[in-house]
Amino acid sequence: MSELRQVEVESASSAAPLPTGHRGVLTCQRPQTNPAIRLLCFAHSGGNPRMFQPWIDQLAPAVELWWVTLPGRGPRWREPHATRWEPLVADITEAVVAHVPRPLALFGHSLGALLAFDVALRLTEADLPPEHLFVSARAHPRRQFALELPADDTDLLRLVDEVYRGVPEAILNSPELAEHFAPTLRADLMLGADYRYRGARTLSVPITALGGVDDPMTPTEELAAWQDCTTATARWRQFPGGHFYLDESEAGVLRTIRRGLAAPMGKE
């Protein structure tokens, strides 16, 4: 068995085992005993959802951490990458409804913030709204960030690094690593370009918008604009760093998450 505990393996905190169509979509590596809430996390374009693994110890035991794996990576590496928005979000939502116990909150970084937002909308439409939505390193969803993607993988990686400052040097300097990483990154960028904002759809749960002070993609006015996406309270906060500020501001981010999650439980 993999060191990762996929939700098709039954546990005290999970629902029914995942059917074939949902295998690998959701991971709860360390189920908690009677957690107060679950936090479902979505990574950025090209990102590995295991980036959230260090959060497990820091949020447990009150918060049980889950993450979403997109097609084409991790336990889903045999599946073709997703480039169409609607079918992917529908599939993720279906898996969440079937297998993640309530109460539930969502956290997403960059592309993951859009995915978390749209999944939150679909859960709300199914009368299963999350308790809180955390959106990180993403402007208001009406802002479309569609890069003109070069055909050459090396050029693609350098373009993304120029815009977001987040492609590791090891990948930029290694043709072998670039060949492995670029298809996933390209597919995720195409996926983001396929997203369409529907302004009439609004949440009724609190939103916390987070960003880096040096990230030109998320100025304060864009973080504050997330208030338009909910009828509940929306807050925003910036941390030291750029688009990938989570690396250097993890402690502050986790404090903000804990406070946000405590509110619906009457502990703020």
From TrEMBL:
Protein origin, superkingdom: Bacteria
Coiled-coil regions listed in the entry: none
Catalysed conversion reaction: a fatty acyl-CoA + H2O = a fatty acid + CoA + H(+)
Domain Thioesterase, residue spans: 38-259
One Pfam family linked to the record: Thioesterase
Annotated segments matching region Disordered: 1-24
Family affiliation: Belongs to the thioesterase family.
Name of the protein: Thioesterase TesA
